[in-house]
Design a protein that fits this description.
heterodimer, A: 693 residues, alpha/beta, eight-stranded mixed beta sheet, 30% helix, B: 381 residues, mainly alpha, 2 strands, 1% strand
Chain lengths: 693, 381
């Protein structure tokens, strides 16, 4: 490429001035973005990637200062610009899209009016012209029924549609640079896949340069040409996508790849390798290499003295590692496989035709109005065995959380049976359960920042759980047991006296695990236990959870939307859609053909951070139907791409039967078995196109 | 006496208060880094100043008998409406520092003693309003449904009723004769006992020894105070409450309660959706344990701020009541009554009404600044 780059950042440093002093957030950050190029900025939370984006927009707030370096946009110095000039630039040549679409839209204005503001403010168009442009923009981002949607208020749209509106708004002024800050993190996987497709397409048609900020290496691989991996305020490695993914030359990048479950990972043969330690706080950064204390290749005296400069590996590929020429990069991780399969025993949990309907009367106080019900769970049947990890997979609104609530006793089922050791539990709320039953079914919650009572010490919270489960006699014995539980989740015993806000996210989740396992439960429901954690912490917590589960031979229901981690750890998988189980079977069976059409789409939507994997792209049309008004016949028929292969419009009239394809692999579909078996795999290794693994 | 002399003498009279303030503030500021949230409060100038003002009046109330120059009820002939700094006719070297009022009493001493009435009723009444609001607001927010709708409706009814009219009603002889205030007191003073018993019972049910001890202490202490305050039947005669004061107390609690109820209910509605509440439910905790030990401690930030503001509001309310001649006895030195007395001759003799008015203002200002400091603190973490 020739000419001036769209964006050129040289040795940028950004600090935040607080009462406690100056906190450097970004140090010596450099990058170049050519016209039409897409660059991914990857890193864990707190590494400074969003600060870089805000620095480019010059939106650092009152406490943020750019303390050094230069940012040039189309050759013009952004740092020398005045407020007026910047304002003209923002929203016209420079546009930014944030994580939460609802937070970027004004809830009191129709979508159309908000879109119209862009050409009216920046190009001085008339209202009528602007409206036409708004509709055109809505068409460009593939919003359904654009003429109607421009008159809707943001809350009337789904999350995916809202994000499309935000993208439309950003693109209306034809920006030269579009900054996307985790644009799909708040969305479901299939919706995310749609947005990612849209971004790739818009890149090709509009020629806009893109700075794509994400914590997900898989997404970056799918959208970008070049990648910059950030760690603790610095760029650790930059290069083209193929450089970073095939010729990794920084220990941090390498460690990141080892800690995410790729299709080849196996929980027994090649477990995930977690990065030891944690991200240093901005004012506690070690001297020399920031990654040094967590690095396998650390050499005292070399890595911890002086500034570590960015060194060129080859053209366009730089790494901030002084030992880049010494490390044997092809060596695989040292962690040995456990090699032991956990023994799967007799069924512990039996669920038979379990149903849960919520009443959604128009006016609950005075009755009246027509009675409607939300069918959250519709005739669920499956079993979970002792020592087994059973994953329940599905997008938001599929009823997986409702199922967990029934099992734990926060909700009561409307029909069917859920039996724990042959004793039905579906109709007993948790307050009426015996302490042994309560202790035997426990739950690990999704958001570690919200599962611990902020005003009680960690130790007393675990002791309280022990008290409620009737474990131990007297205070001293319970305290002893609590300390053992801290050992079990590999936290220092001194944490007993800490308050939750003194713990990191991963540590909090470990406490959550200790609390759930306090009463030696038979069944643990893990509701997305690692999805709120950073990549490097995820691996450690996942391994710990599996280790504890394996040792106690507990049955675990692992509720997740992350198909990569499910493939890695689950023994069996249940796929749910709109309150129905559409497919269940052993993990290998679910991840290979024959698929249920929904499983196929779900698998294709998951971004995979492996350049050697080739994926079939299947885009789901439309939105998930409302559970208040589910489609007739098959729940998936409104979005199914195989529907035309079924005769007599059976999909629209009749709920499909459960077809057993052998050994407990059940698919709820009208497609004939031959059509199912003839499906080709969604994920294939690029070199050996025979299927995965 | 000249103005400067008066000022210096008054500052000297407050000598015990200055000593006490110095004793509290010097170590607090010295060790503020080790004092947690309290130390952080002192680092904010607004909070430290507010705390200082509040402490000043608390200490004044405590040390009042060392500060006053005359008895607040003593009338000295010839001192009627005397100007500030007038010497007493008979005793040499004694002055009415801020002059005399319409009944020839010492304005300065009355203001100092008045702080006792104000500081005895306002915080205690606010505290009782809070306990009552906890007992109703927590279940209303936690359970929701019709119980919540009914309670919120009643709270709105009380809020919609003119406060002053309500007070007039509560102190009319007919209403008092009907026994309504005593009944209300019987219920209201029982609530804190129920509150603490529930608090202890829900927490220590798994530790019988501790449970029995704590419950016994609470019940003995609680019922003793209860007998004294609500029925004036304390066997030892330590706790008692003048019926007039009881009336005013009940009225103030009654007026404050619906507002605090709504705050507590709102906070409960928010906190009950947190995962740690679900976690408590899934380990089979009782509803009261969740309300009192999981929700209430985590609602403390906004509640402490509101508590400070509400003491200020109650202080003004007491002043207003005194101003209208409600509640406390006519010769009581409390600030509201004194301001009302001084009002009649305000254009000729402003000095009897001004000191209590300034005192009231500075106390409320102190409470508001303290609340601001606390709020600033709670926003930071």
């Amino acid at each position: 490429m020739t000419g001036t780059p769209v964006l050129e950042i040289e040795h940028l440093s950004i600090s935040f001035m607080t009462r406690a002093g100056e906190i450097p957030a970004v140090l010596d950050f450099s990058c170049r973005l050519e016209a039409g190029e897409a660059m991914g900025l990857v890193g864990e939370s707190g590494c400074g990637k969003s600060t870089v984006a805000l620095g480019i927009m010059r939106y650092l707030g009152r406490s943020g200062r750019i303390t050094g370096g230069a940012i040039r946009f189309n050759g013009r110095d952004l740092l020398a610009m005045g407020e007026r000039e910047l304002r003209r630039l923002r929203g016209s040549e420079l546009a930014m899209i944030y994580q939460e679409p609802m937070a970027s839209l004004n809830p009191a204005m129709t979508v159309g009016r908000q879109l119209m503001e862009v050409p009216m403010a920046h190009a001085g168009r008339s209202a009528a012209e602007a409206r036409q442009l708004a509709i055109d923009a809505a068409v460009a981002v593939k919003l359904p029924d654009p003429a109607r949607i421009v008159d809707a208020y943001p809350h009337q749209l789904s999350g995916g549609q809202q994000q499309r509106v935000v993208i439309a708004m950003a693109l209306m002024s034809k920006p030269k640079l579009l900054i996307l800050d985790e644009p799909t993190t708040a969305l479901d996987v299939t919706v995310e896949a749609g947005i990612i497709d849209l971004i790739r397409e818009l890149r090709e048609t509009s020629g806009t340069s893109i700075l794509f900020i994400s914590h997900n290496l898989g997404l970056v691989l799918e959208t970008c040409d070049r990648v910059c991996v950030m760690y603790s305020g610095e760029a650790a490695e930059t290069g083209s996508v193929s450089d970073i993914f095939t010729r990794t030359r920084h220990p941090y990048t390498q460690a990141l790849f080892r800690s995410i479950p790729l299709p080849g990972a196996d929980k027994n043969a090649s477990p995930l390798v977690a990065i030891p330690g944690h991200l240093p706080l901005p004012h506690e950064r070690p001297p020399g290499c920031h990654f040094g204390p967590r690095c396998d290749h650390f050499i005292a005296g070399r890595c911890d003295t002086g500034e570590i400069p960015m060194t060129a590996v080859d053209a366009g590929h730089d790494s901030r590692c002084i030992r880049v020429d010494e490390i044997d990069w092809s060596r695989t991780a040292a962690a040995a496989g456990r090699g032991t399969h956990s023994q799967i025993g007799a069924p512990v949990l039996k669920i038979d035709r379990l149903r849960k309907y919520y009443d959604a009367a128009a006016n609950a106080l005075f009755g009246g109005g027509e009675k409607r019900s939300v069918k959250a769970n519709e005739s669920l049947s499956f079993e979970a065995r002792e020592g087994e990890i059973l994953a329940i997979v599905g997008e938001s609104g599929c009823g997986k959380s409702t199922l967990a609530k029934i099992l734990i006793g926060l909700e009561v089922a409307s029909g069917g049976v859920a039996a724990m050791d042959d004793r039905p539990v579906q109709a007993t709320p948790v307050q009426q359960r015996a302490p042994e039953t309560v202790a035997s079914i426990q739950m690990i919650f999704q958001n570690p920042f919200d599962t611990l009572n902020p005003s009680m010490t960690v130790g007393s919270q675990i002791v309280r759980a022990l008290e409620k489960f009737g474990c131990g006699e007297g205070v001293a014995e319970r305290r002893q047991r609590m300390l053992e539980l801290l050992d079990l989740v590999r936290l220092p015993r001194a944490f007993e006296r800490r308050l939750p806000h003194q713990l990191s996210g991963g540590q909090k989740q470990r406490i959550g695990i200790a609390r759930a396992f306090a009463g030696r439960p038979k069944l643990v429901l893990a509701d997305e236990p690692v999805s709120a954690l950073d990549v490097s912490v995820q691996a450690a917590v996942t391994e710990l959870l599996m280790d504890v589960q394996r040792r106690s031979r507990t049955t675990m229901l692992f509720i997740s939307h992350d198909l990569s981690i499910v493939r890695y750890l689950a023994d069996r998988v249940v796929v749910m859609y709109l309150g129905h189980i559409v497919e269940q079977g052993r993990t290998e069976e679910v991840y290979t053909p024959p698929y249920h059409p929904y499983t196929e789409a779900l698998l294709s939507a998951v971004p995979i951070a492996d350049i050697k994997v080739e994926k079939k792209r299947i885009l789901l049309e439309g939105e998930i139907p409302s559970a208040l008004n589910p489609p007739s016949g098959c729940p998936f028929q409104t979005r199914c791409r195989w529907k035309h292969q079924v005769r007599d419009r059976l999909c629209e009239t009749e709920l499909p039967p459960d077809v057993d394809l052998g050994a407990g692999h059940v698919i709820k579909c009208h497609l004939p078995t031959e059509a199912l078996t003839a499906m080709s795999p969604v994920i294939a290794q690029r070199d050996e196109k025979t299927g995965m693994r | 006496m000249t103005t400067i002399e008066i000022t210096l003498t008054i500052l000297m009279r407050f000598f015990p208060v200055w000593i006490a303030l110095a004793l509290i503030f010097a170590p607090s500021i010295l060790f503020r880094r080790h004092l947690g949230p309290y130390g952080k409060l002192l680092e904010s100038p607004v909070g430290a100043f507010g705390l200082g003002l509040v402490l000043f009046w608390v200490l004044t109330a405590l040390l009042a008998q060392f500060i006053i120059t005359a008895s607040p009820l003593e009338q000295v002939s010839g001192m009627k409406n005397a100007f500030p700094g007038t010497a007493l006719p008979d005793a040499a070297g004694r002055y009415y520092l801020l002059g005399g009022d319409n009944l020839a009493r010492d304005v300065f001493s009355r203001m100092i003693m008045g702080s006792r009435t104000v500081l005895a009723i306002a915080p205690a009444a606010t505290l009782f309003a809070y306990v009552a609001a906890f007992m109703l607001g927590l279940p209303a927010g936690y359970f929701g449904g019709r119980f919540d709708s009914a309670l919120t409706f009643i709270a709105n009814l009380i809020l919609a009723f003119p406060v002053i009219l309500l007070f007039y009603l509560l102190v009319t002889p007919e209403i008092r004769a009907s026994g309504v205030p005593t009944l209300a007191a019987a219920v209201l003073f029982l609530l804190p006992i129920i509150f603490f018993v529930t608090l202890i019972a829900s927490r220590f049910s798994a530790q019988p020894a501790k449970l029995a001890l704590y419950l016994a202490v609470t019940l003995v202490l609680g019922l003793w105070v209860y007998a004294g305050l609500a029925f004036d039947a304390d066997p030892l005669g330590v706790f008692s409450m003048d019926p007039n004061r009881l009336n005013i107390f009940i009225s103030v609690v009654f007026v404050n309660m619906p507002v605090v109820f709504r705050i507590v209910r709102g906070l409960t509605l928010d906190i009950r959706t947190r995962d740690y509440i679900a976690a408590a439910q899934t380990r089979g905790e009782s509803a009261w344990y969740i309300m009192l030990w999981e929700i209430l401690p985590n609602a403390r930030g906004p509640l402490i701020v509101d508590f400070c503001l509400r003491i200020g509001y109650t202080t003004i309310l007491l002043g207003t009541l005194g101003f209208f001649g409600l509640g406390v006895s006519p010769e009581s030195p409390d600030w509201g009554t004194t301001i009302n007395d001084g009002r009649k001759l305000l254009s000729i003799y402003p000095h009897p009404a001004l000191p209590p008015a300034l005192a009231l203002m500075s106390l409320v200002l102190g409470l508001n600044l303290l609340a601001d400091g606390l709020r600033e603190q709670s926003l930071k973490d």
